[in-house]
Design a protein that fits this description.
Length: 168
């Protein structure tokens, strides 16, 4: 495994020089379908963006973290909410439903040291806040970000560039 000095400059070019969506243009249809599924209105867009931001933080993707922070800012979310996503457990800025969604994405993405990742208790907590269609939509929102995590971690698109042009 390659180690880099903590003071080393981080490259400002993507690791993968070719845009993967140009190499495999069929992915645009998949991406559009996922966007349509997750944007069905059953879960507030802000909640989905909070979940996506937390996923980016958990996997350590600067690209995803910057991207979803930008989406939240553009949607008018407060800096307090955005900056406290990483410490949501003790932050006063989230609703019970948002907390349940954040707990779910953490359970799905983090290995469990004892037992199943999504406990029956967590399942019941999420179900108490989301009717069945919204619960399923939340699961697909977690799947949507997971679809892009390998690309973000491996190809390393440049953080802060346009969502449509991270390879330019």
């Amino acid at each position: 495994m390659e180690t880099r000095s903590i003071t080393a400059e981080i490259p400002t070019v993507p690791r993968m020089s070719d845009d993967p969506t140009q190499l495999v243009p069929e992915v645009k249809e998949v991406s559009a379908a996922l966007l349509k599924v997750v944007g069905n209105g059953a879960v507030p867009r802000a909640t989905i963006s909070l979940v996506h931001l937390r996923a980016g933080q958990i996997v350590g993707s600067t690209y995803l973290t910057v991207l979803h922070t930008g989406f939240l800012r553009a949607a008018g979310q407060s800096e307090e909410r955005i900056t406290s996503v990483s410490s949501w457990q003790d932050s006063p800025y989230f609703t019970g439903a948002e907390r349940a969604a954040l707990a779910l994405v953490e359970a799905v993405l983090r290995p469990s040291t004892g037992g199943e990742r999504v406990s029956g208790e967590l399942y019941d907590e999420v179900a108490a806040h989301y009717e069945p269609k919204a619960f399923a939509t939340l699961l697909f929102a977690i799947g949507q970000i997971n679809f892009f995590i390998p690309l973000a971690l491996t190809a390393k698109p440049v953080p802060g560039r346009s969502f449509d042009e991270p390879w330019n």
